[in-house]
Write a structure and sequence with these properties.
Blueprint (H helix, E strand, L loop, with lengths): L1 H12 L14 E5 L2 E5 L5 E9 L1 E5 L2 E4 L4 E6 L7 E2 L16 H4 L1 E3 L6 E6 L2 E5 L5 E5 L2 E5 L3 E3 L1
Parallel strand pairs: 4-13
Antiparallel strand pairs: 1-2, 2-3, 3-6, 4-5, 6-7, 8-9, 9-10, 10-11, 11-12, 12-13
Length: 151
């Protein structure tokens, strides 16, 4: 009965919390620094960059540098590392802008590495040291501070 009353209160008042992100089905959207990201129910991670940035992908014992700055990074298949998206537009950014990660995620870390984390479909993104962003899923990931480093 109490749960039903709470649901009616939420519907009647329009009061809803963005936390926790896993409460509603569908992608969770968030912003972290200059990234606007989404994580889908199936674990696909995508981030739009407000300013294109250089990217490297770990390859063997070295790194492969992408010869152009990227504006979108994806983790969308288990057989490939995080990689640039080549579509048009900003598919991971809501029209009104993404809510900050601290509004949809939960606190993680402590001290200099304290930040917030969002999880969905077995994938996660978190903020950490100096506002760096770390995303992992499907056995791969990337981090972003001044450039995107994929693995």
């Amino acid at each position: 009965m109490a749960a039903g009353a709470a649901a009616l209160f939420t519907i009647a008042t329009g009061a809803a919390s963005l936390t926790p992100a896993a409460a509603a089905p569908g992608p969770v959207y968030f912003s972290a620094g200059s990234l606007n990201c989404s994580i889908a129910d199936n674990g696909v991670v995508g981030c739009d960059l407000t300013t294109p940035a250089p990217m490297s992908i770990a390859f063997g014992s070295g790194s492969l540098y992408i010869p152009f700055n990227v504006r979108e990074v994806l983790i969308d298949v288990p057989w490939a590392p995080a990689h640039p998206g080549l579509g048009i537009g900003t598919p991971h950014t809501l029209p009104q802008g993404n809510p900050p990660i601290d509004k949809v995620g939960h606190p993680v870390g402590s001290g200099a590495t304290a930040g917030f984390q969002v999880e969905r479909g077995g994938s996660s993104c978190k903020t950490g040291f100096h506002g760096a962003v770390y995303c992992d899923g499907m056995g791969h990931g990337f981090n972003y501070y001044e450039l995107i480093q994929a693995h």
